[in-house]
UniProtKB/TrEMBL annotation:
Location(s) in or outside the cell: Cell membrane; Membrane
Top-rank lineage group of the source organism: Bacteria
TM region positions: 27-49, 61-81, 102-130, 136-158, 170-188, 226-248
Organism: Actinomadura napierensis
PROSITE patterns per record: ABC_TM2
UniProt-recorded name of the protein: Transport permease protein
InterPro entries: ABC2_TM, ABC2_TM_bact-type, ABC_2_transport, Nod_factor_ABC_transporter
Residue ranges of domain ABC transmembrane type-2 in the record: 25-251
Length: 253
């Protein structure tokens, strides 16, 4: 059964990956916008933001990476919505394939596409002067957090992809996710924010994730923040996966 699922998922992932490679503008778009934001915050607003002794680009990069992922997963919802409206799911139901493989194909494609976008953003940051003395373990930890964050948001994206009534509705859900890093510690210390905004910023998932990645890049102690970041990612992932599975079963029943 596991072999059957893995084989079907691999074939279906190849199908969705071909759609991405035929439309590379989606990957390019999800990288260009965050790079533009990074240029804006580093070269225009950088002097107005107190980053201490940390170069602006080093300080901003963790938040930009999360914006990149939040932008990229909107295309997962759009691809899934297109498949639903195109009748692809009904065709697959008449074939002897693992039903869950269809969803996992879109999820794995999201991971691959977002990895390319994140790599492009990191490359742009290097050209802007980003440097880190973090060792291999720290980089592996950062990669793991970003993968877990991507998985969590991708399963969130699956829900509107299955339930939206229009193309605009399928993609619009990502706007609040892209906005979250701006109300966090990504671009300014939360202590400088007004009371209610500060309370929200300090207790939303992006702040703990940004703080952890920043500490790893700057070779600073991560403390218990890394467990908070992992708990947020895991909690969102489990909740979104459960909701997505329920929505999928309702759609194909």
């Amino acid at each position: 059964m596991a072999t059957h699922f893995l084989g079907d998922t691999a074939v279906l992932t190849g199908r969705t990956m071909r759609h991405v490679t035929r439309s590379l503008d989606t990957v390019i778009t999800t990288a260009i916008t965050p790079i533009g934001i990074m240029l804006l915050f580093v070269y225009v607003f950088g002097g107005a933001i107190d980053t201490g002794t940390v170069p602006s680009v080093d300080y901003m990069l963790p938040g930009i990476l999360l914006i990149t992922i939040a932008s990229g997963i909107s295309y997962t919802a759009l691809r899934l919505f297109t498949d639903m409206r195109g009748g692809i799911f009904e065709r697959f139901q008449s074939m002897p394939i693992a039903r869950s493989g269809v969803l996992w194909a879109h999820v794995l494609t999201s991971l691959a596409a977002n990895a390319v976008s994140v790599a492009a953003v990191v490359g742009a940051a290097l050209l802007m002067g980003f440097r880190s003395g973090a060792g291999v373990p720290a980089w592996l930890a950062i990669a793991g957090i970003l993968v877990l964050f991507t998985l969590a948001l991708t399963w969130v994206a699956v829900i509107p992809g299955l339930t939206a009534k229009s193309v605009d509705g399928a993609g619009a859900f990502s706007y609040p996710l892209v906005f979250l890093p701006f109300v966090s510690s990504a671009f300014a210390p939360t202590g400088t924010m007004p009371g209610p905004v500060r309370a929200f910023a300090q207790h939303q998932p992006v702040t703990s994730i940004v703080d952890t990645i920043r500490a790893l890049l700057l070779q600073r102690p991560v403390g218990t923040g890394i467990w908070t970041a992992l708990a947020w990612c895991a909690g969102i992932l489990v909740a979104a996966y459960a909701c997505a599975v329920i929505c999928y079963r309702r759609r194909i029943s």
